[in-house]
Amino acid sequence: MDSVTQAALGAAVGGAVLGRRLGRKAVLMGALLGTLPDLDVVLDYGDAVANVTEHRGFSHSLFVLTGLAALLSVLSAGLAPARDISLARWSAFFGLILISHPLLDALTAYGTQLLWPLATPPVAWPLVFIIDPFYSLPLLACLITALLTRRVRRWCGWGLAISSLYLVLAFGAKLSVEHRLAPALAEQGLDTAPHLVQPTPFNILLWRATVVDGDRYYESLVSLFDSDAPPALEPLRRGAALESAAFDSQAGKRLAWFAGPFLRYEMRPIEGKLTLIATDLRLGFPGFHPFSFTLATRENSRWQPVDPTVELGSERGVQLATLSRLAARALGERGALCATAYVAAEWQLQPLTLPCSPDA
Questions:
Q1: Torsion of Cα atoms, 237 then 242 then 244 then 249, to 10°
Q2: Euclidean distance between CA atoms 57 and 328, whole angstroms
Q3: DSSP label at residue 112
Q4: At what angle do helices 133-149 and 152-187 cross, to 10 degrees?
Q5: CA–CA separation, 344 and 356 (whole Å)
Q6: Helix and strand numbers, DSSP H then E, in the chain
Q7: Could you tell me which of 161, 177, 162, 160 has the C-alpha nearest to residue 126?
Q8: Dihedral sign from CA coordinates of 182, 186, 191, 195
Q9: What Cα–Cα distance (Å) separates residue 237 from each residue in 268, 282, 298?
Q10: Nearest residue to 197 via CA among 257, 328, 108, 326
Q11: CA angle 153, 158, 163 (to 5 degrees)
């Protein structure tokens, strides 16, 4: 999640645990500790793929954060002026604040290395988008009320309860979407294909399913307000023929470890050289994927790995009209948004006027 939300979550946890004893200080300390794991973004590994895949790594490890919480608890119990706070209460304070950060991050599609330094793939159980005002704003409102009324523990508790209820609702919404999607996948023989179901930006009413099947991948948008008609699966090309060339580089292998099969490959001329580009399909939205990387260039009929890799990102920004279509689609208007058209516009840099096409 974004840093503001993580600070708010840390502040609420801190206020709920030690608000009665430390008051506003518990909220401030919680906010600072809640953002601590994200300080890894200042590290530059000298390579675009490394910078993205190392984020949410060691600083989000349950092993590292548990050890840090234990150290801070012992130091606070022995050195803090408030000697009447027990070691157990300090442990709950530091432990819950630090551990809640990566656990919330793991509920987004980015992927969080909870078990670092074990070489297991990043964990992603996407229930919320990386920025979701419906999760963050009630939490912030309760925090402000807590600071103004000085009833810190009570209002921080309410903030945690409301935000947690939102996650429960998101879980239920995802189960409903997966139930609707299952027959459509089975009908096309895709029920065992790798697929990812996640909320679209800023809400949990409209969900996006990405299904990978060899050289094709499918995008589907499913709203909780959709009729009983089966979800539409829009087919798109993934460029799987370029996958072996991508895997010839360490960066390509690292990216595949990070994103799994949810990668799209394409060739594009950059600075006079034919360049192999990989795009992480999980992140962003069809047509607005923020993470694309140069992996290799074509020289003498062979692909040569690029070192260091360069992040390209999306060449188009999100417009107000796009957000309006997103809202309309979330409310059940099936014709408001078409993933095929947006992806075609991303590749060809054309206006977003193409209709959905089964021959994409």
A1: -120
A2: 37
A3: B
A4: 170
A5: 10
A6: 11, 8
A7: 177
A8: negative
A9: 15, 15, 21
A10: 108
A11: 130
Task: Classify burial at 298, counting beta carbons within 10 Å of its beta carbon; exposed 0-12, middle 13-18, buried 19 or more.
Answer: middle
pLDDT (tens digit, 9 = 90+) per residue, 141-168? 999 999 999 899 999 999 999 999 999 9
Indicate if the alpha-carbon torsion angle 291, 296, 298, 302 is positive or negative: negative
Q: Which two tokens stand for residue 316?
A: 């188009």
CB 356 within 8 A of CB 234: yes
The CA distance from 84 to 91, in Å, is 14
Cα(144)–Cα(136) distance, rounded to whole angstroms? 12
Is the dihedral angle over the CA atoms 267, 271, 273, 276 positive or is it negative? Answer: negative
Our measurement of the distance from residue 325's CA atom to the centroid of its chain's CA atoms, rounded to an integer in Å, reads 22
Place of tokens 């008051």: 23
**pTM confidence score:** 0.91
- Comparing CA positions, the residue from 261, 244, 248, 298 lying closest to residue 276 is 298
- Rounded Cα–Cα distance for residues 330 and 79 (Å): 53
Q: Using an 8 Å Cβ cutoff, are 111 and 291 in contact?
A: no
pLDDT digits (tens, 9 = 90+) for 51-93: 999 999 999 999 999 999 999 999 999 887 777 899 999 999 9
